[in-house]
Recover the amino acids of this structure.
């Protein structure tokens, strides 16, 4: 961007979204649309080993297909960043930190540069301080609820960072509250699966057995197991025991009224009368719509499962209670504090962003961590993204590699990405076709 550029917000600001998975792409793009409705939107996807397939991107419901960029070092050098008004980082905390360091090196002095926005794809139930401080240094950190906004500001102020960067909004895929209004067809129970929660095979097998039992106890109901992707596709979190495989391996006949489905979660909720999950963000979407929602207690209420987030919601239930006909609904006050239901947060956020975009100059980006306060952590963290502790790209022959294993993994993964994507998008579908011959 040139120094002589006028300090007024354009009628159609240019907003770029950078993501690394299908779920983060969905959140990032819908957030950009929600906060900048008149903008010219574009998107990039970091080409990693977990890069989503074409089908997974289609299931997000976002019509725009992002272009690929090889990694953070390549991204921060893109010429098109000079013409971007706002940058939405739909990335995990470590990747946000890497981008912030790269951009801080690219623009070392106050001047014209994109407004950098970061946030969270869903509810924040673990590593709250850790994830927040990795995002600290962004011009704006989005909070998806009043509860999150208050906690973010408290933590930032307590750590000596600027709490005013926190901007309250709502999850962009929630839509209008109480919009379901019922549907035609049988009563439908949807289990929203998560790749890693619960993790152990025995726990996931129990889920399958209980869903089969529920389907047999209620032959008038449709029971759906909504999975994140097809077999062989990567997800944001590792899935060691896909539900699609567990059913047949248990040697239990599947009832006719139980099926495994995938696709857009919003479309599945359109036909859902009861949403069941351990801790999926789909629960928030269902509660927002007014759909009865059950947060399973069968594996306990634990931070590692994430279901502790829903304590106080009024939606905690066991499979046994659901078999007996329980239809939990969210407590109104609890739901409001978590960003569900009517809210004017988006309108207020838009107004705040208009003011931020109109600023004539932006200060230099200052990530919370640097080589002065985190010399033991930062090189290893940034090394995972092929960068050194000062935001420079690592070279294969760099004599100053602080975290050689991380650097090697990063460099090797670049060569593996093309092979992986070829396997998912070309080889795997061909093998499936052959298997059906």
């Amino acid at each position: 961007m040139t120094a002589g550029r006028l300090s007024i917000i354009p009628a159609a600001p240019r907003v770029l979204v950078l993501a690394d998975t299908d779920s983060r792409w969905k959140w990032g793009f819908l957030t950009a649309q929600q906060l900048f409705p008149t903008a010219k939107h574009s998107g990039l996807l970091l080409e990693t080993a977990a890069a989503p397939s074409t089908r997974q991107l289609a299931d997000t419901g976002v019509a725009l297909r992002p272009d690929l960029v090889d990694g953070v070092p390549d991204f921060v050098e893109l010429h098109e960043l000079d013409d971007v008004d706002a940058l939405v980082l739909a990335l995990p905390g470590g990747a946000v930190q890497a981008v912030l360091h790269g951009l801080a090196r690219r623009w070392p002095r106050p001047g014209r540069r994109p407004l950098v926005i970061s946030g969270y794809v869903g509810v924040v139930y673990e590593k709250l301080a850790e994830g927040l401080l990795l995002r600290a240094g962004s011009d704006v950190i989005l909070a998806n609820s009043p509860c999150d906004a208050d906690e973010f500001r408290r933590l930032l102020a307590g750590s000596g960072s600027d709490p005013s960067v926190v901007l309250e909004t709502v999850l962009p895929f929630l839509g209008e509250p109480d919009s379901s209004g019922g549907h035609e067809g049988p009563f439908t129970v949807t289990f929203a699966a998560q790749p890693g929660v619960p993790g152990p095979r025995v726990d996931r097998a129990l889920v399958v057995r209980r869903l089969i039992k529920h389907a047999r106890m209620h032959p008038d109901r449709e029971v759906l197991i909504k999975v994140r992707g097809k077999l062989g596709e990567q997800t944001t979190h590792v899935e060691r025991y896909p539900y699609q495989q567990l059913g047949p391996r248990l040697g239990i006949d599947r009832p006719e009224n139980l099926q495994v489905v995938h696709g857009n979660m919003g479309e599945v909720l359109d036909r859902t009368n009861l949403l069941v999950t351990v801790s999926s963000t789909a629960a928030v979407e269902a509660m927002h719509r007014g759909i009865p929602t059950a947060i399973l207690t069968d594996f306990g209420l634990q931070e590692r499962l994430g279901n502790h987030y829903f304590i106080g919601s009024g939606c905690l239930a066991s499979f046994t209670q659901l078999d007996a006909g329980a239809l939990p609904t969210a407590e109104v006050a609890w739901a409001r504090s978590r960003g569900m239901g009517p809210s004017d947060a988006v309108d207020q956020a838009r107004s705040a962003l208009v003011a931020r975009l109109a600023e004539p100059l932006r200060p230099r980006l200052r990530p919370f961590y640097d080589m002065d306060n985190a010399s033991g952590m930062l090189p290893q963290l940034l090394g995972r993204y092929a960068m050194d502790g000062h935001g420079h790209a690592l070279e294969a022959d760099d004599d100053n590699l602080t975290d050689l294993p991380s650097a090697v993994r990063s460099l090797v993964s670049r060569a593996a990405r093309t092979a992986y994507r070829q396997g998912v998008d070309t080889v795997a579908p061909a093998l499936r076709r052959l298997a059906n011959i």
